[in-house]
Design goal:
It contains eight helices and no strands. It is mainly α. It has one domain. The model has no long low-confidence stretch (mean pLDDT about 90).
Length: about 160
């Protein structure tokens, strides 16, 4: 039972998933803060390792959540936003961008655009279950990376 409670809370990034308005956006903002500090104090290998640890726990936690509450993308599941935003923010070390608030805000806004608009993500969103919930945001994060590259290239920051 304790294991179930931990996994449920993990998928909600408790208490963020229980916030009434825009829990996904707040989870993305939370991710930006976490990533800023990780990127400031840790090497790239640690940042990658943390992603994979969170990803594998997310698979278990979302699967557990769906068993308890039904097989749909519940608003309170926000670990998918964490993963997608984290991938998008990976543009900072990948392109050797400055780890600052302006770059993080730009990446945050672009990821949220893809996540909310679902441009190019409609097919992925139709996948049911754990993978459908997680992968539309993960792919949204991946879509953000080339856009960041070309935007920052155009701005002369790369």
């Amino acid at each position: 039972m304790i294991n179930n409670i931990f996994l449920i809370k993990f998928s909600e990034i408790y208490p963020i998933g229980k916030i009434k308005y825009a829990p996904g956006t707040i989870a993305s903002l939370f991710t930006c803060i976490i990533f800023f500090y990780l990127n400031t104090y840790f090497q790239i290998e640690i940042i990658i390792l943390i992603f994979f640890i969170v990803f594998f726990i997310s698979l278990l936690s979302v699967q557990n959540y769906l068993k308890l509450y039904g097989n749909k993308d519940h608003q309170s599941i926000v670990i998918d936003e964490f993963l997608g935003q984290y991938i998008a923010l990976f543009s900072i070390p990948l392109f050797e961008l400055e780890n600052n608030i302006i770059n993080i805000i730009i990446i945050f806004l672009l990821f949220r655009f893809f996540d909310i608009s679902k441009i190019g993500l409609k097919g992925v969103e139709k996948i049911s279950g754990t993978f459908g919930i997680l992968f539309d945001d993960i792919i949204g994060g991946i879509y953000t990376i080339p856009v960041i590259y070309f935007l920052f290239l155009w701005l002369g920051k790369i």
